[in-house]
Amino acid sequence: MAEPQQELIPQWLLEIMCCPVPECRGDLELRADILRLVCKKCGRRYPIRDGIPVMLIEEAELPPASEAFEGSSPSEGAS
Q: What dotted CATH number matches 11-59?
């Protein structure tokens, strides 16, 4: 019988976290397979190191150009 996998990030924490980019603030999705929190709006991928999400904009990976997200363009909201 397989042991239950320890929760990487508690659900209650995911519910209150959002993308730190001021123009975005999108909801985050846990991708345990790649150890990243992925913004559902802009697609940035924030690493999880030693069980701690690194929510620094400078540490985020930009989404691959082939992926589509809720936001219509990266320049949206820029003035």
A: 2.20.25.10
